[in-house]
Design a protein that fits this description.
This is Electron transfer flavoprotein alpha-subunit. One of its GO terms (molecular function) is flavin adenine dinucleotide binding. It holds the Pfam family ETF_alpha. There is one protein chain. This protein is of the alpha/beta class. The chain has a single domain, classed as 3-Layer(aba) Sandwich (Rossmann fold), CATH 3.40.50.1220. The protein is 39% helix and 14% strand. It contains 5 helices and 3 strands. It has a 3-stranded parallel sheet. Strand 1, helix 3 and strand 2 form a beta-alpha-beta unit. It is globular. It starts with a helix and ends with a helix. The relative contact order is 0.17.
């Protein structure tokens, strides 16, 4: 996500979806979110109905924590990112462009 400010978009997306934010080790180490939200081998194992991976590369350590998810949507600008190998739906693009659109569309659907 690049910065704590940008990470705020993930929080907004989770809020409109009625979800919770999970994070990778770098996000917790940079104190964008408490370590209690870290997902993966050295964090929590999660199994939500929907997991939206925003800018996640797909490192094995993180992926091991999300494999119980029913449906994985991955957003990454690198079309060769390993996360796409485990995703049910992959969106190639900049998360900073895509997440705001997702937020607005979800708001429309909910209203």
């Amino acid at each position: 996500m690049g910065s704590k400010e940008n990470f705020g978009l993930v929080k907004q997306l989770a809020e409109v979806c009625g979800g919770v934010v999970g994070a990778t080790r770098p996000a917790t180490e940079d104190e964008w979110i408490p370590r209690s939200h870290q997902v993966g081998q050295s964090g929590k194992i999660v199994a939500p109905k929907l997991y939206i991976a925003c800018g996640i590369s797909g490192a094995t350590q993180h992926v091991s924590g999300i494999m119980g998810s029913n449906y994985i949507v991955a957003i990454n600008k690198d079309e060769d990112a390993p996360i796409f190998e485990v995703a049910d739906v992959g969106i190639v693009g900049n998360v900073m462009d895509i997440i705001p659109i997702m937020i607005e569309e979800i708001k429309k659907i909910k209203s």
